[in-house]
Amino acid sequence: MTIRNWVKFFFNALLIGGIVTGIIGLIVRWEFFSQYLSNGEYLEFLGAFIWMIFLGFTMSVVAQMGFFAYLTVHQFGVNLFKSLTLWNWVQLLIIAVVLFDLVFFRFKLSAGDTGRTLLYLTLLGSLLVVSILTAYFKAKWTKKHTLISALFFMIVITTLEWLPALMVRSGNIDSWVTILLFPLLAVNAYQILMLPKYNRQSDEDKAKLDSRKKARKRI
C-alpha cells in the first residue's frame, strides 16, 4: 500500500471510530449528557461530546494496531500449519474457545442479573451478527476461503481489543463496555472489507507512476 492510500485508510478508520463512539456514547450515556442541556451548559455538553469522539479515535487506533497484528498472525498461522484448510480449522477452534470464555468467564453474570444478562446477550449478538455479515461480504467480494479468516478476525481480535473494558469491575462499567464495543466492530469491519480496495488503488497508482517514469526516459 502506498503512503497516500495508507493515510486515507488510517484517517477514514479514525473518523469512523470517532463518529460511532460519539453517537453510541450519546445514546448510552444520555442521562449524563442531558443534564448539561437541561442546565443550559451547552459548552460543557459540547466538550463532553468531543471527548467521546476523541475516545473513539483512540479505539480506532487500537483496532488498527490489532488489524495489522492479525495480518502477521494470519501469515504465521498459514506458514506454521502448511495448509490454509488446517489453519481454518484451528481458527474455528479458537473462535469457539473465545466465545466460551466470553460467556462463562468475562461476562460474569449471576442468576439475579436479569437486566445485565439481557444487555450482555445483546452485545454478544451484535458481535456475532456484525462478524458474520462482515465475513459473508468479505468472502463474496474477494474469495470464498477468506470467510473463516474474516470471522476469526472479527470475533477473536475484536474481543481481544475489547478485553480491557471487560476486565474492569468498578464504576459504570456496563455503559463503557457497551460504548467501546461498537467502534471496534465498525472500524474492524471497515478495515477488513476496504483493505483490498486500497491495495488495488495502490497498485494502480504505482503503475501510473511507472508509466510516467518510462515516458520521461523516452523524452
Automatic annotation (TrEMBL):
The chain crosses the membrane at residues 9-28, 48-73, 85-105, 117-136, 148-167, 173-193. The keyword Transferase does not apply. It comes from the Bacteria. This is KinB-signaling pathway activation protein. InterPro entries: KinB-signalling_activ (IPR024164). Keywords: Membrane, Transmembrane, Transmembrane helix.
